[in-house]
Amino acid sequence: MRLTDFWTRLEQAFGRGYAESIAADQVLPQLGGRTIQQALDAGEETVVVWRAVVAAYPDRVPSRLR
């Protein structure tokens, strides 16, 4: 998954402002206790980060974005 696709999906699932907040502020256990942004900055594959988002927020991510 391309990084631009990742951000598009995150914004579609959460809205633009909230997506940025979640990426910067929410620590996800699925990412080893890192935020989305920290995981991406550390070089984690976007598909791995996206799967962590889907696992952490199953009710917020529409099935078409999974």
UniProtKB/TrEMBL annotation:
Pfam families: DUF3046 (PF11248). InterPro entries: DUF3046. This is DUF3046 domain-containing protein. It comes from Micromonospora pattaloongensis.
